[in-house]
TrEMBL record:
This is TRAP transporter small permease subunit. Residues 30-160 form the Tripartite ATP-independent periplasmic transporters DctQ component domain. It is a multi-pass membrane protein. The chain crosses the membrane at residues 23-44, 50-71, 92-118, 138-167.
């Protein structure tokens, strides 16, 4: 069991590290696109629906697909009034309980609901309702289940890491 936990942690962490590094480049693209949009809007009084839509598509991809990377690096939002003072083992217990009670069930609910949502979008060949908007809206909607599947996989990794810490078997690199 210990070997499986370490194998799983290593593989999922590698996957989300690789994906997180790739998706982080979307932030650069988003900044450049917003700069272009601002220049066109305020200097040339021109705007296009596809630019605005692409901005929120990039933001959605960064947020959704980057969530597992954020969890892996423990950079998610947390109210840590008490957590920051906890020992490593106490933090592992908090992470374990929180992941099992909240994160994993939430991921499963969102994955289930979003697969139906995205499937419907694919069937309808959904595109933007705005004139000049982006086609193939189902592509960005696909980021919802993809992001939550990655987050689910990372939450299992966090569960295993927490168990290894609780039972003094932690010998992996995060």
């Amino acid at each position: 069991m210990l070997h499986f936990f370490n194998w799983y942690i290593k593989r999922v962490d590698q996957l989300n590290e690789w994906i997180g590094n790739k998706i982080s480049w979307f932030t650069t693209l988003l900044v450049l696109l917003i700069c272009y949009d601002v220049i066109m809007r305020y200097l040339f009084n021109q705007s296009a629906a596809w630019i605005f839509e692409l901005e929120w598509h990039l933001f959605a991809a960064i947020f959704l697909i980057g969530a597992a990377f954020t969890l892996k690096h423990d950079r998610h939002v947390r109210v840590d009034v008490f957590y920051s003072r906890f020992s490593v083992k106490q933090k592992a217990w908090v992470n374990l309980v929180g992941t099992l009670i909240f994160l994993i069930p939430f991921c499963l609910v969102i994955i289930d609901a979003s697969l139906k949502f995205v499937g419907n979008s694919f069937r309808l060949n959904e595109s933007s309702p705005d004139p000049g908007g982006l086609p193939a809206r189902y592509i960005i909607k696909s980021a919802i289940p993809i992001g939550f599947i990655l987050l689910f996989l990372q939450s299992i990794s966090l569960t295993f890491k927490s168990l290894l810490i609780i039972f003094n078997k932690a010998n992996h690199k995060s």
